[in-house]
Amino acid sequence: MVSETNNATLVYERPESLTEMPTFYCPGCTHGTAHRLVAEVLDEMGIRETTIGVAPVGCSVFAYNYFNHDYVEAAHGRAPAMATGIKRVLPKKMVYTYQGDGDLASIGMGEIMHAAARGENITVIYLNNAIYGMTGGQMSPTTLPNMKTTSTPLGRDVEVAGYPIRMAEIISNLDAVSYVVRRSLHNPANIRKTKKAVKTAFQTQASGMGFSMVEILSSCPTNWKLSPSKSLEFIEEQMIPVYPIADFKVNPEIKNIKG
Fold it and tell me: What pTM does this model have?
């Protein structure tokens, strides 16, 4: 698209599914990137008017300020339960949760496991930055071994705190699940792959195939005490060896989805 006023070529513009609200996220945080990808997918699929998002407590708590579609707020960890109720009452709506690791893999562990076990026809966008971002940088269930946080200043001791919980691997073992993958936001190539996965997850729901989840490795420069660029390196060098990027479960019928 070429502007008639100055012959400038427009190569990027705000998706209709995003508002113009300035972001509250810390500099370098990749939550904004994830928001953008979800919004682009909703626009491309033409489903903004029929989509309902559910955000719990955490850095996602103000997601309704940024998405230009219906959004509701859930109690900490309870987004899958609320999404289940919405989808069952309004089955023609596209319903998704947007959750972090401190929410989904901790207080919300029971909610996400049972929603997945039932094969609820919802989509989960799960951002894993291996830390409690909003509440001060404490250890979360996904914090890496020896990783320093405000509650593990000497590093996570696996003999005391256990090992990181790999949610994609766990959920993929449930019979009723249709689509579970892990992606990352640490460079442009992987961002493109993440967007494709997000779209496939929504298409899985649109086709009535049941539960879908995209786990996304995300950065937290403030609580990691790293620069934005070093945080992206941390994902590639430290997180991916523990949380490999992979497809963990893909319903064979998904390959027949068009678009």
Answer: 0.94
Distance between CA atoms of residues 219 and 88, nearest Å: 34
Average pLDDT by stretches of 10, the chain with 259 residues: 62 90 92 97 98 94 92 96 98 97 96 98 98 92 97 96 98 98 98 98 97 98 96 98 98 82
- Helices 31-45 and 188-206, packing angle to 10 deg: 50
70: enclosing H helix or E strand: strand 70-73
pLDDT of residue 5: 55
Looking at the DSSP bridge assignments, the partners of residue 54 are 72, 97
Give a three-class secondary structure readout of 116-171: HHHCCCCEEEEEECCCCCCCCCCCCCCCCCCCCCCCCCCCCCHHHHCCCCCHHHHH
Domain boundaries of the chain, sorted by first residue: 31-250
pLDDT for residue 35: 97
Query: Which CATH number is 31-250 given?
Result: 3.40.50.970
